[in-house]
Amino acid sequence: MFQVDINCDLGESFGRYKLGEQEEILKYVTSANIACGFHSGDPTVMRETVKMAIANGVKIGAHPGLPDLNGFGRREMAITPQQGYDMVVYQIGALQGFLSTFNEKMQHVKPHGALYNMAAKDPKLAEAIAQAVYDVSPSLILFGLSGSELTKAGEKLGLQTAHEVFADRTYQADGSLTSRSQSDALITDQEQSVAQVVKMVAEGKVVSQQNTEVSLRADTICIHGDGEHALDFAKYINERLAKNNIKVSAICNWEA
Fold first, then answer.
1. Which residue of 40, 237, 240, 249 sits 20 to 30 Å from the alpha carbon of 27, by its own alpha carbon?
2. pLDDT of residue 254
3. Where are the domains of the chain?
4. Interatomic CA distance for residues 209 and 201, integer angstroms
5. What average pLDDT does the segment 95-122 reach?
6. Which residues pair with 233 in a beta bridge?
């Protein structure tokens, strides 16, 4: 039997602005990436999201992003590796404070948006982020784009590293995600999304936009909690994975 983690970006509401159906979607994921206040989220949202994740038995990770609320952390910024390191340490620390009040351990760290994509291609930034995670705690799991510079950096340091794939994104021939600036970046057809996920988990391959098969490793699947049909898709993907003999479980609970 194959096994895979399902992760979702959560805690991305801010002040009076609510994003996503957190309480419901937590019933269908195994890992939650909680925004730490830079790209979205605020202290109250962080605490409430931590509380809900624990109540649903969902493992918790920090979701550090660039300091860009207006752009939701999806616009690239010119930062040095040291600045990237500092941002990640700072944001992990913010979430860790709330976890401590619930006596809960952090499972993982997954960079957000532009920071994630920059680290996927920039070896120096990837090394700085991996080092930040390692320095906070070597027991943390680093989530990164499958086969990217970030996963390579994590493995080089000796971190447990989860190779991430995306249910609702298209891929390029080099294994990178299609830029959101392109019209074909997102997969909106539910059947197409699930078929892509099953192929990635069971075969270790994805068909790129150039119609070539790209090899990858699928440890964790990202589903986005802010989509119009996010909740329905979360339910459906669980059903389809079960039918394809794929066990859904948080990485820290995986059987050897």
1. 40
2. 83
3. 2-248
4. 19
5. 97
6. none
